[in-house]
Every structure is written in C-alpha cells, then in structure tokens.
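Example 3.
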Amino acid sequence: MHATLNKIAFTFFLSMLLFSCKQEKQIVTKVTAKTIAVDTSFTPVKAITNTIAPFKEKMIKEINTTISYTPKKLVRTDGDLESSLGNLIADLSYSRANPIFKKETGKNIDFAMFNYGGIRAGIPAGNITNKHAFELMPFDNMFVVVELTPNKIEELIAYLKTQQTAHPLSKHLQLTLTKNSFKLLINGKKFNSNRNYFILTTDYLQGGGDNMVFFKNPKNIYKQNYKMRDAIVDYFKSKDTIKSTLDNRFKRK
Amino acid sequence: MERRKFIQQTAAAASLTAIGGLTLPSFTKKKKHITILHTNDTHSHVEPFEASHYKYANKGGVARRANLVENVRKENPNTLLLDAGDIFQGTPYFNYFGGELEFKLMSMLKYDLATIGNHDFDNSIEGLYKQLPNANFNFVSANYDFKNTVLDTHVKPYQLFIKDGIKIGVFGLGIKLEGLVSPKMYKETKYEDPIGVSQDMSRILKEEEQCDLIICLSHLGYYSKRNPTAVCDLNLAKATKNIDLIIGGHSHTFLPKPTVVRNIDNQNMLVNQVGCYGINVGRIDFYFDEENNITSKGRSIIV
C-alpha cells in the first residue's frame, strides 16, 4: 500500500523534474482588455510638463510674431459676390503658386478658385501675426493645379451662377452675371471653347469638396508640395502692408 | 460561454498548482502575464484639450498619459508601450518643431515601438528621417520597402521582445500612400500588399522565431463601410493566422472595446483601436500557461 503510494509520488516527482528541465512552450490562456481615458484623474508628470514648457513658450512667441500689417480689417463678408479677404487669398495664392507651376511646365496658371467656406476667420485692422494665418486657414490643404476641358470650365461657371456666393477667385477671372446671361473674361480674353484651362485650387476642393465636382477627373493634375497656409504666411512676410480691394471681378448687373 | 470556459480552465490550473505545491513547493510557478499599452493617431496633441473644447474638454495630454503608463508599469513591469502611427500633424507644435517634441516625449514615456502613418510623411520622408535621433524607440513596417530612400536600414519589418521569458514579435503595416500623400513626400517608398506580407510575417514570427505572442501594429484603418472589401484591420484579421492582436490606427475609430475576430484558422483574436489625439490608451493583458498545464487550446477572451 505504502509502496504504491511512494511509487506514484516518485513518478510525479520525476515528471515534475522533467517539466522543469526544459523550457515549456507558453500558451495564451486568458486575455483581458480595457480602454483607459486620459483625463484629470491622472496627475501630469512634472518631467514631461517641464520638457514641453520651452517649446510652448517658443511656439506662443512665434505664433504671436507680427509678420505684416493691414490698415483695414479683411473679411469675407464685405462684398456681394467678392470680398476683400477672398480676393486677397485668391490673388496671393496665384502669385505664390504660379512661379512653381511655370518652372515645372513652362505654362501659366489661368486663374485661382477656392471656396467661401474655406476662409475660417477674418483679420482685424492692425498687425498681422502667424496666429491670424492659422485661424484663417486651419486646414492643411495643399495647392493643386488642374487642367480642365472647356466643358468643365462651363460647369465651373454654372456652379458660380447657381451658388451666387463670394467664392475666392483671382483677378484673372472676370464674371458678370446678368438676368438671363453672363459675361466672362479670362485674362482679359473671351472664353475659348477650343482650349483647356489651368486652374489653381486645393487638394480638398479637387477631391470634390464643397460640391466642386468639376475639379474631379481633370485632364491633368499637378500637385504642389505647398500648403495654402504656408503660402499665406510667406506672402504676408514678404509685404510690409497688405492691400486688398473690391474690384468687381465677380458681380451681378 | 467564454467566461464559463475560462473559469473551468482556471479551476483545472489551480488544482494542478495545488498538487505541485504539496509535493514540491519549488515547482510552483507564477503564471506569466504581459501587458500591452497602445496609442494611435496622437497627431501632435502634446497638451490636453482646453476646458472649453466642444468634444474633448480636458482630455488627453502627454504629461497625464505618462502618469497612466507609470502606474501600469509599476503594476506589471512586463509591459510594452506601442503606437500605431500618425504621431505627426495636428497642432502648431508640429508646424514649428517638425515632430521633435513628439518623439522626445514618446522617448521619455519609454515607448517600445511604433509604426509609420501617412501623416508621418507630412514633412517628407527626409523630415521623418531628420527626427529619428529624437526617438529612443524603433519603427517597424513590413510592407513599406524603403530600399531607395533615406529610411533604408532604419525601419525593420518586425522587432522581437523578451519579457519574463515570453517571446513577443511585433510587425508593422502601413497604408497605401498613392493618392493619399504626394509622391514628392514619400519619394521611392514602395507599398506592398498588407495581407500577403502579414501571412509571411506571421509564419516567420511563429515558425522561425518561435514567438509566444504576435502583434501587428497597423495603420490601415479599422473598416470602411463604403468600401467593405478594401484592405483594413478587420479583413486582415480574417485572412491571416497566428496573430494575437492587431493594434490599429488611421480611421480614428473609437472602439468601446476590442473586436473579437475569428481568423482563417477559426481562432479568436483581437483587433483594437483607441480613437485619436491621445484621448485614450488601450490596455490588453495576456496571461500565459505552460502548454502541458492546459487542457484545451482555446483561450478565454474577456472584453
């Protein structure tokens, strides 16, 4: 009786010894999970806050750095189908993007077009800082130039006619809506239904944003590695005083 | 159902330990336990959201995340901290410092590994390369071929960790960059099919490297209703085997809890993603047992 028990115990002992001698394969038997909200129940770690502090200070200083000046406030709402801020944004975008496009293709952009909703804030009279540029254009939209067929240009004009909104257009486009018709000049010339046009816009609008579907599937697309906000900042930095006026580029008669 | 199975298994394991304990106390082994903490799409959100924020008031912030991570590491030193990409872009901290601060802070939090998201190319591949010296952790990507770029040899397909004798293999996956990022930014980076690459990866990690735990750090996105057959974490999980956990990113999906998915071998595994901006941290705990200690191969997943 005792001998049998001893034998069992010995066998057990042996087998335990064998198990322990070689590294046993580890198998997952249980998994638990939870999502932890990072909220005020956690105490901020000092070392981290201290590391952030000098970056924060420098960032705030940079953000509040004066980069230009405007004698009057610039807003998107001071005209009917155009605005001082919309005209400025479209013209400065053209002036920053066209040299890049010309260098790449040897051609000029015909005009620039963006959306009214994309101008997120105005600029008050006085000093202009980086902060204004961030507030005006918080999105990281990139410039693209699209080559559009005359049909697509007609769609674009039809969109402007239906919307009757002060979408930012560069001075190269002059559009007068009359009761039953319209008058269109591109760079002072009549619309030519036998040629393609090069339009500057953003990757967001090119993708069909704000229902600008005429930008989709263009003949050609030239993506610029240039953010619209960076262009705004670069332009402001290059001018002591910002001037922008309403010039009837888009109006109704 | 799964919970009951778990209780039965624990009971069996407990009785075995008890016998061992009676006979030879030295053979009683503590069950091994690995904790995985993870973030995704933190997007330069270094500081918490302001108290006036319409949606995320007082949420997030790296200093608080550091406290959370410290607490978990105190509780279980066998913890890995992982990130599924899009560390860059979203606050002026990125615009002004190019990701320097993000990487420095992640190094202070002792991140173990990250993968690369599409926005991490926002200052071009050179911009990412320039910030690498600020990261005391590695990046993995198994389906981006960086051979003809500055990142060549700097990003490995996978990395192995040994914690408490458990061998953990983590591989990375990135999203198709064409159409999403300008080629001027990602240059000669070549994208390979994530599903095929993952099938290879899981075989290498399971059979050649003999990993006990296999994790995929993915920036593919959770699932697209509009495009249900597109490559995503859910479809990847179903088409592969031996992956225990897919940590996702890109789609900013706030999963209330990880999704249990049956893989191609009909085994349960987990897919998780914790939204964005460092608002949440995901925690997954894996408990191990020696192979001959367990009666059935099924694992209990309690989520």
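The first helix of chain A runs from residue 2 to 21. The domain at 80-118+142-228+243-252 of chain A is CATH 3.90.780.10 (5'-nucleotidase;  domain 2).
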